[in-house]
Design brief:
This is SDR family NAD(P)-dependent oxidoreductase. The protein is an alpha/beta fold. The protein has 9 helices and 9 strands. The two termini are 34 Å apart.
């Protein structure tokens, strides 16, 4: 893809989503975002000068409203990014409260299903477009004790994206964005102080701030929007290199 694009980002009022919106606006693209916190939505709209809606991705009608507003303001949607996601307290499955488990499944998986369904149908009607889904811990099948529900949703999103790439309407493509470890509140959510201290040693080597990850990802989510695309920031080779250099490199 080349030229300015109309791009929708769910969960685009905080963390990596907001960072992506900032980077894409700086590149000259027309961005629309949503979030669930009215104050954050208003702040994003004021800062970025973009359409911002209060929308819960677990409600398909509200996701449709997001699509409709982006089309009303920008004429079409070229790229849709299913970024909205939440985590849960770091607890074994049988100790995780039912409501908390349900919320994670609904936002991370059902929310992505809703975004894919609305975007695919709308893009079919306009003659094409690209859908990106966001990977996370668990996408590669690796298990981490205490994060079973979160990891299961991300594993499911990876499968869902592969299926969508095969069954999407003509002209509609789908792919995966894998940002690696990003320093946001999602990364450390649910950790005790002791767990956060232990994990901090790994984060210091592998995690990058939003200000580093977002511009890198923003450029590629536009330039690599093709069917079955898989954009990975933190590859196995990069991980090995960072650990090898860790004793000699001081990271912020």
């Amino acid at each position: 893809m080349s030229g300015a694009r109309s791009i929708v980002i769910t969960g685009g009022t905080r963390g990596l989503g907001l960072g992506l919106a900032r980077s894409l606006v700086a590149l000259g693209h027309r961005v629309t975002v949503c979030g669930t916190d009215p104050d954050r939505v208003a702040a994003a709209e004021a800062e970025l000068g973009v359409p911002a809606l209060v929308a819960d991705v677990t409600d398909r009608a509200r996701v449709q409203d997001l699509w409709d507003e982006a089309v009303r303001r920008h004429g079409r949607v070229d790229i849709w990014v299913n970024n909205a996601g939440i985590s849960h307290h770091r607890l074994p499955l049988w100790r995780l409260p039912a409501g908390e488990a349900r919320a994670v499944v609904e936002v991370n998986l059902l929310g992505t299903v809703n975004g894919c369904a609305v975007a695919a149908a709308g893009m079919a009607g306009q003659g094409g477009g690209h859908i990106w889904n966001m990977e996370g811990l668990g996408s590669d099948g690796r298990t981490v004790p205490g994060l079973g529900v979160y990891g299961a949703t991300k594993r499911a999103v990876t499968y869902l994206t592969g299926a969508l790439a095969k069954e999407a309407p003509d002209g509609v493509t789908a792919g995966l964005l894998s940002p690696g470890m990003v320093v946001t509140d999602l990364l450390t959510y649910g950790y005790s102080e002791a767990e956060r201290e232990r994990a901090g040693r790994i984060f210091a080597i592998l995690a990058d701030p939003v200000e580093v990850v977002a511009p890198w990802l923003a450029e590629r989510l536009v330039s690599r929007a093709r069917n079955g695309a898989h954009v990975r920031r933190l590859t196995a080779a990069k991980i090995a290199y960072r650990f090898a250099k860790a004793p000699f490199v001081r990271r912020p």
